[in-house]
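haha ok so turns out i had the wrong file open the whole time. this is the CORRECT one, sorry everyone. sequence first:
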Amino acid sequence: MTDTAPRPTLEAVAARAGVSRATVSRVVNGGDGVRDILVERVRKAVEELGYVPNQAARSLVTRRHDAIAVVVAEPETRVFADPFFALQLRGISKELTAHDNQLVLLLTEGRDDHARVGRYLAGGHVDGALVFSLHLDDPLPELIQRAGVPTVFGGRPGWSGDRRGVVYVDSDNRGGARDAVGHLAGLGRTRIAHITGALDQTSAVDRLDGYRDVMADADPRLIAEADFTPAGGERAMRELLGRCPDVDAVFAANDLTAAGALRVLREAGRRVPDDVAVIGFDDMLPVAEQTDPPLTTVRQDIEEMGRLMARLLLRGLDRGTPQEGVGDTPSSVVLPTTLVRRASA
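then structure:
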């Protein structure tokens, strides 16, 4: 075995900087009341000695762990296959990294996982939680409330009960859907179908409502339920062609669903956009630019949503009264969407 050098201590930093241990502690833990010249000497000593603060000791002083739980209410097979989650996690990670916070990723596959996540959050391991992709029957909101952990949600809350103090970040799903369907109607399409997302999630419900805002008198058979996956898009498109062979346009609830629908249309010999125009939602470039033809879609800034979720949570924590602090910002932040035109419509 190789002997390792002892870790530099707070006392060693104080001796090198020529200040007291208390002064070093205040500088390292972000405290106030230290003159700039002493702060600079301490920082120089920390760098020269390679001092790394003891996180457990630091937490006793600051009452912060500098760790944020990111809870995705989906199984890992879905999270790691869908680029939506990668984009949102990238936005969260960038913001947390910029503020020297660790990201702790927690995924849920079933009821046992929900209980595990609830226990972890209640155990005081993290300063707060960012939660997204919730389903309407999800027990996580109640578990989080019980744990007393400051939380920002991704997506409009859909659960019943008291929502006071709930902070969330979402996109204008309904407005974006209206823009998409209005564009298809403006192209002269009259048999416009909608392939929904998972209707136990508010984003899918809002996009369906946006479709109905424009197509109030549409044939109910033009609506096919799916689940935000390519396989769901394929299945729904086959259903639509079977019962509505004269369909001339499709608004799909997301880009993955649209990609599945495009494959089925191609197999059926339907030309896009000549015979059937197709629009998706998300504007995930790895998907939208690689479909055949490239996909017209509604753009939402997924990475910015993640970044803003983290920013709202950290801002509240920095104010010292996390939930009330977050509540000082708008309780619901809804980002705009934009229609991006490509070759499919």
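DSSP finds 15 helices and twelve strands in the chain.
again sry for the mixup
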